[in-house]
Amino acid sequence: MKHYEIVIVGGGPAGVACALSAKNTYPDKNIVLIRKEPTPMIPCGIPYVFSTLNEVSDNILPDTPLIANNIEVINDEVVGRANHTIVLSNSEEIAFEKLVVATGSKAVMPNIEGTEKENVFLVRKDKEYLNNLKTCIQKSKKIIILGGGYIGVEVADELAKAKKDVTIVEMMDVLLPTMDAEFGSKVKEIIEKEGGKAITGKSVKKILGNGKVSGVELNDGSKISCDLLIVSCGYKPNIDLAEKFGITFEEGKGILVDAYLRTSEKNIFAIGDCAAKYDFFTGEYSNIMLASTAMAEGRLVGSNLYSIKVVRQYPGVLGSFSTKIGATAFAVSGITEKRAKARSLDYTVGIAKAVDRHPGKLPGASEVTVKLIFSTYSHTLMGAQIMGGDSVGEMINIMSVMILNKMTDIDITNLQIGTHPLLTASPIAYPIINATVDAIKKWYKYQLA
């Protein structure tokens, strides 16, 4: 029997971040990372293996940092546990002091007739599966994507760039339903401009074909032909090990953990997509799964395995995300207006547009639209949505910091910012500040009414 002080099960971003953090904090501890997949993928890069990247292997999560830090890697599946010992599929037993479960999430296949047909694919985090999918895409002419969330629209954008006949079917009224409608409408406009098609407000009732997919039937009875169907209806926490280990979990929500990611079993932690998430604003379960969140959890647990070295009051998941469709970047953090209405929150919206260079005729300039959601009475920033050029990617990170720190509209208008003609919008028209001013003006009008 082998013995390791620290055993991490799962080779994704959470597991790797945890292993490196543990080695930094406990350099004398013997650490092993066990993963089922011999070649782990970079999750957020998967949509780009279908066109932008030449090969699926261009999106491999490298072992270089693990090797450099003398962290052992075992490619095998964990199938059981007894006390402080886990069992691998080859019957090998491994003893541990601290165990971290970082098994991620699994793609969801909806309960639709015909999902077993040939050329019906999920978007899995598996190299060989993705190689097969890419080969089939290259041979296909008409492709349907079921699901218009982030992954669905990113894959559609990639396939449209590859000049494929691609159609997205999204059951909600707009694409990118985690953002407000005006942002989803812009995504649809871009995809259609690229030659793709988008059907919203309808769902797939049945997958057609005799053995091999030939099309889909929608809930309104209409039919669309295709020779390949990609299902992108989200992911669910992988709680397989929780069941085998006897630790507490909630079906569909993940392994239950405390603020320090400790499970119901002493000395066992859970991080990343497999661990239950809680909403920043409501404390309710959240289905938001992001690599950035997973890595933050990995770093925290790696430092705190043996004692609390990094104090943390877990605020919940904010849900900060960015993507790029065509030449336009989209980003969101916190509460959207749609969600604020659904929660009956009293809010004020601030909107501003500006070119992210000054003067606007400089190379690389693009218009940026910022939409902010403030609490009407506390004046704190609750949410931000942005679309525009590449500057959007870092702007949303700044907005996330503002939301987490409960900055008010006055705090934001008093910011001391750095600007430069080649890098940012004009200080006079800086969109984050001007959107805040727009909200303040509306608030004053409300007070005077």
Structure description:
- It is a single chain.
- The protein is α/β, with parallel strands linked by helices.
- The chain folds into 3 domains: 2-106 and 236-304, 3-Layer(bba) Sandwich (FAD/NAD(P)-binding domain); 109-233, FAD/NAD(P)-binding domain; 321-448, FAD/NAD-linked reductase, C-terminal dimerisation domain (Enolase-like, domain 1, 2-Layer Sandwich).
- It is 26% helix and 28% strand.
- The chain has 11 helices and 26 strands.
- It has helices spanning 13-25, 64-68, 127-139, 150-161, 181-193, 240-245, 291-304, 337-342, 392-404, 409-413, 431-448, and strands at residues 2-9, 31-35, 72-75, 78-82, 85-88, 93-101, 105-107, 120-122, 142-146, 165-170, 197-200, 204-208, 215-218, 223-225, 228-231, 235-237, 249-250, 254-255, 268-270, 277-278, 285-286, 321-325, 328-334, 347-355, 367-375, 381-388.
- The strands form 7 sheets. Strands 1, 2, 3, 4, 5, 6 and 19 form a 7-stranded mixed β-sheet that branches. It has a 5-stranded parallel β-sheet with strand order 8-15-9-10-11, with helices on one face. Strands 22-23-26-25-24 form a 5-stranded antiparallel β-sheet, sandwiched between helices.
- Strand 2 (31-35), helix 2 (64-68) and strand 3 (72-75) form a beta-alpha-beta unit.
- The longest helix has 18 residues, at 431-448.
- The radius of gyration is 23 Å and the shape is globular.
